[in-house]
Write a structure and sequence with these properties.
Blueprint: E1 6-10, E2 13-18, E3 22-28, H1 50-57, E4 60-66, H2 72-81, H3 85-88, E5 108-109, H4 124-130, E6 134-139, H5 181-186, E7 211-212, E8 218-219, H6 222-234, E9 241-246, H7 259-269, H8 290-312, E10 327-333, E11 340-344, E12 350-354, H9 370-373, E13 378-380, E14 388-395, H10 399-406, H11 423-426, E15 446-451, E16 458-463, E17 466-471, E18 482-486, H12 508-524, E19 531-532, E20 548-555, E21 558-564, E22 572-580, E23 596-600, E24 602-604, E25 607-611, E26 618-625, E27 630-632, H13 648-651, H14 659-678, H15 684-699, H16 703-718, H17 735-738
Parallel strand pairs: 3-9, 3-10, 4-14, 6-9
Antiparallel strand pairs: 1-2, 4-13, 5-19, 7-8, 10-13, 11-12, 15-16, 16-17, 17-18, 20-21, 21-25, 22-23, 22-26, 24-25, 26-27
């Protein structure tokens, strides 16, 4: 399909009849806003970022840009779906596990949240494909599940990306049997072996990171090479392209393959080049880490390589012009900078190592303070005035509707996007620092954050000059329950970006307004909230009123649990069934790929009921009482009792194992036969699998026959393309295991 032509303004001049623009999104990992020199307001920086600074000089730099979450996976999920975490289900990087308290002394534990974006979700690449774009994703995804990397970027709709075994799907660009595949696939981020003192790039032609004497001895990066070769191929077609380039830099492990740059930053810091393991920076503040400085420098070089290609390469769809003239380049990151991590020492121990410093922003990654969620965000492209700066409050969730607008698409309410189209802001059609607008024309007043995870447990709202933080895990952390900060003055200048002055008590009306708004937003989206720990060793109010489990059982695929709510025990408020369909070694690629999901449960007084999803191998009821305490259908150990590496299926003893899930799967198969026969499909294979499953129900006493029957049934049902049962998500969680 030919791209629709349109008029575009380039650097003040008009290019009439330009085709639809290309879109290149450079999505970095853990890059703090203050890591980029042009964001430092003239304050001295250790890091040198000339290419990112030039990108800002050639486009628009946003000073109040946010990630939707302070960690990786939820921000990437929000980007690709255009929805906040409570909508798409991804709240942190450790999803798909049974919620457990960290220790029995902690008063709260995290709720359940998903490991992946649902396979059938509306996603940005699928939407851009409808607009005639060819789409490519390179390197880090981190919104798929635990099943051997599945779902892949290809599963979510990208035309070009990686799939099984991390192989890309274009034989002209990718040889799955290539030498040094691991090094090429990961680029310069690949952890150094055996440690960060070894593995620096050399000029040896056989070195997969060989240095280039024509590029200031920069090491080779496979992810950059693949990106350039993909753009070179697709630019000759008749479609615009969307490249989602996602380097793993500057995420840890903190190391540097570029020895020349590493020695340069050691010299800038006035320290010797390390010859032993250990921290190079035990300070608690400042940009003083030469390893990290080199990683930032390398990220900047990558930006330069991609942008330079666009600047120097002819655009066949727009003769007489370079690609850059009709391409939007967006630089962003998934969360704020990581302040510190432990560094290994020579004797095998660890010691504190400061990585970066987000000052004047408060704290960093994994917190909802500004250092954890305020990010660098730069856009260059048609109609974007060079050197412009916007104080508009924007978020990664805005990129989905913005890319749609760049592609000439109209808003689509069916997508249920939470973000705003930023193109009017980029074109400066809105007032300089005005709020972005939703599709209905209304101004966005607020941005929301929800991170009910780990020690920082909390939610937040940014509205105008103000930001309110609600600590939903009091006792887990030392933060006040409510904090209110005035980030900017009425004229848009900085006021308290360091979030040092808690105004919650001195501004009670504003505090009440924002807290009410935040709670209403959480309730509207049924956001998963922390549980109180019913086993907490430090007695909590109403802990003595927590109900106990009386009975649990099943009838076919129907599951139930009853609780004792007599004698003043607190009634159950809500319930979930958490389940897995790969709780057997015969259904997993390896032990690390066990993944859990949630299904609805119905509270009927003191009896809670649910239906086993087809293929469920194990299930647990998670009940929330009216005081927010957690009651489970069987005891769940704390992490101090049983470490993280243990699978849920390995420590459960009363988990409705195998039989209810196989009965549900048989019913699904029987329904599939009806629909398949209506389409005159061959159902011989499915009927054979159903017969085997029926025998297993009557005779089996161990997991292996159940697992094998489930695997074969799933496989046969999915093979009948075009019937509704083949598309059921529960049957498609782990197809790789069945291949």
């Amino acid at each position: 399909m030919l791209a629709v032509a349109s008029a575009a303004v380039i650097g003040g001049g008009v290019v009439m009849g330009a085709p639809k623009p290309n879109i290149v999104h450079i999505f970095t990992d853990d890059l703090g806003q203050q890591d980029v020199e042009c964001y430092r307001g003239g304050r001295k920086s250790l890091y040198e970022t000339p290419h990112m600074d030039k990108l800002a000089g050639d486009g628009m730099r946003f000073t109040h840009a946010y990630s939707p979450s302070p960690t990786c996976a939820p921000s990437r999920a929000a980007f690709i779906t255009g929805q906040y975490g409570p909508r798409n289900g991804v709240l942190h990087v450790m999803g798909g596990l049974l919620p457990r308290p960290q220790t029995l002394s902690r008063s709260y534990l995290a709720p359940f949240y998903s490991c992946r974006v649902p396979i059938q979700s509306n996603t940005l690449p699928r939407t851009l494909r409808e607009a005639g774009y060819i789409t490519g994703h390179i390197k880090k995804m981190h919104v798929g599940g635990r099943g051997g990397g599945y779902p892949y970027p290809l599963t979510y709709g990208f035309d070009f990306s990686w799939g099984k075994h991390r192989d890309y799907n274009d034989p002209e660009l990718w040889d799955p049997k290539m030498k040094n595949k691991l090094e090429y696939n990961n680029g310069l981020w690949l952890p150094m072996r055996p440690n960060r003192l070894h593995g620096f790039a050399t000029s040896d032609p056989d070195d997969p990171f060989r240095t280039d004497p024509n590029d200031d001895d920069r090491p080779f990066d496979g992810t950059v090479d693949l990106s350039l070769r993909w753009m070179e191929k697709v630019r000759h077609g008749d479609k615009p392209f969307f490249l989602n380039y996602c380097t793993s830099l500057v995420h840890g492990p903190v190391s540097a393959r570029d020895r020349k740059r590493f020695e340069h930053y050691c010299k800038k810091l006035g320290i010797p080049v390390p010859t032993k393991l250990g921290s190079t920076n035990k300070a608690r503040a400042g940009q003083k880490n030469p390893y990290y400085a080199t990683m930032v420098d390398t990220t900047d070089w990558i930006v330069g390589k991609l942008v330079t290609y666009l600047e120097q390469t002819d655009d066949p769809r727009n003769p007489g012009h370079k690609l850059i003239e009709n391409t939007y380049v967006i630089l962003s990151t998934d969360n704020g900078g990581c302040n510190s991590i432990p560094a290994k020492t020579e004797d095998g121990g660890v010691e504190h190592e400061q990585i970066t410093d987000n000052a004047p922003l408060r704290e960093g990654k994994q917190t909802l303070y500004e250092g954890g969620v305020r990010i660098p965000f730069i856009v260059r492209g048609p109609d974007v005035r060079p050197g412009s700066v916007s104080g508009a409050v924007v978020s990664l969730i805005d990129l989905y509707p913005t890319f749609m607008s760049m592609a000439g698409m109209n808003p689509d309410p069916a997508l249920k996007l939470d973000g705003c189209d930023l193109l009017p802001v980029l074109n400066e059609a809105n007032e300089a620092n005005g709020a972005p607008r939703f599709a209905d024309g209304s101004k966005r007043e607020s941005l929301y954050f929800h991170y009910p995870i780990e020690i920082p447990m909390g939610s937040a709202v940014r509205k105008g000059n103000w930001k309110l933080y609600w600590n939903t895990g009091p006792g887990v952390n030392n933060n006040p329950e409510i904090e209110l900060f005035k980030l900017t003055n009425d004229d848009g200048t900085d006021c308290d970006v360091g979030e040092k002055n808690n105004l919650a008590k001195s501004e009670p009306a504003k505090t009440a307004e924002l807290l009410t708004e935040l709670k209403a937003w959480l309730a509207k989206h049924n956001a998963a909230m922390p549980y109180k720990n019913a086993r907490c060793t430090s007695p909590l109010e109403n802990q003595d009123k927590v109900a106990s489990i009386v009975e649990r059982g099943s009838d076919g695929a129907n599951l139930y649990v009853t609780v004792d709510t007599k004698s003043g025990k607190t009634p159950i408020q809500s319930a979930l069934l958490l389940y897995t369909t790969n709780g057997s070694q015969h259904l997993r690629i390896n032990d690390n790929t066990e993944e859990w999901f949630q299904a609805p449960a119905v509270v009927k007084g003191n009896r809670i009921e649910a239906v086993a999803p087809p293929g469920m191998t194990h299930g647990v009821f998670y009940l929330r009482d009216e005081h927010d305490f957690l009651i489970t259908s069987e005891p769940i150990p704390a992490y101090t009792e049983l470490a993280l590496g243990h699978r849920g299926s390995s420590f459960l003893k009363h988990s409705y194992a195998y039989k209810p899930g196989l009965i549900a799967l048989i019913k699904c198969g029987e329904s599939a036969i009806v629909h398949a026969k209506q389409k005159k499909m061959n159902v011989t294979g499915l009927q054979t699998a159903l017969d085997l499953a029926g025998e297993v129900i009557l005779e089996a006493v161990s997991e292996e026959p159940y697992a094998k029957a489930m695997r074969q049934l799933r496989k046969e049902i999915r093979a009948l393309n075009g019937i509704p049962e083949a598309e059921l998500e529960a049957l498609n969680y782990f197809p790789v295991s069945d291949w």
